[in-house]
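Comment on both lines for my students:
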Amino acid sequence: MSDAAEQVDEKSAEERLRGRRKKAVRAARRVLWRGGLSLTIRDRLASLVEAAPEVYDLEEQPDVYGNGVVAAVEERVASLLGKEAAAFFPTGTMAQQIALRCWAARTGNAAVALHPLAHPEVHERHAFTQVSGLRPVRLTGEPRLPTAEEVRDFDEPYGALMLELPLRDAGFVLPTWEELTEVVEAARERDAVVHFDGARLWETTVHFGRPLDEIAGLADSVYVSFYKSLEGLAGAALAGPRTLVDEAKTWRHRYGGTLFQQFPTALSALVGLDRELPRLPEYVRHARVVAAALREGFAEAGAAWARVHPEEPHTHEFQVWLPYEPDVLIEAAVRQAEETGTYLFTGYWERGGPGLARTEVTVGAAGLEWTAEDVKAAVADFVARLP
């Protein structure tokens, strides 16, 4: 077989597996989390139509360029985070670029100190430098948030410190509350502003043992997402001082982010704030039960090596590492779902090193039905399917 034919065959195999995964997650009777991607358009629309009247008066006129229901979301977020004002954005990528370019203009320094695993460095195609003229500088290469010493002793000035809370690509990890406050104080000593990438800030209250407004109160500005933890259709918000938010809205228009109408997205954000936000602490606590059961299940099943990271999850999301190639684990997970109706690892497995793969586990409403024994039984079945 020629190289070209092999590539076509591999692509066809990948497409078939992708189709099987999509079908399996929709058909599975038991999952730990059933996100929006597993639902049809009809399902999502029906859910929104059902819930929207509970959060907003649908007899009101639709929003136009940011008023009405969009303004209601902004007011709600500002109140929850204890900030003077908030601005609704179509994406977090846009919200954070604008926030940090506004801070750069005020501080006179375009350098942004962040972690190399932070979202702008890994998932945004160098948007900071290519679009906004910002210059990322990396404080540490360790798979954790930077320490106060690293922030204080960094060998060049920077105008803003950006902290992703939790740091997703390191395992959804968080510092302790004491460590976080020390890091913020160290940045202040350097006359740097502090911005929180809080895409998943909503679920940090259990770990920190503090309410949202106290956590957000450490930062000069905060970005939050509506679709990651709150199951919204899309959208984000930037919260901070009113003067910063007003300036950000001007830049939002320049970036093309002041959309004509956004009421479906805004309504779904309000639904998420009403329905999912109050339940997140319950998900976080149960994620710890699931993580412990996974560790015990792998040990009892005789798995050669397995790791749950962090051992006690900081949020309702965490990583699982296994010593296999990703395609082997994906196939085992899909076959388990197809043959038993239980889809234990719905996340995509990615290479973490030679012969090593990792996936992300999220525990949501569907996961609350699982006992520790249910998890261990599913692990045993999954391991039995591995070579």
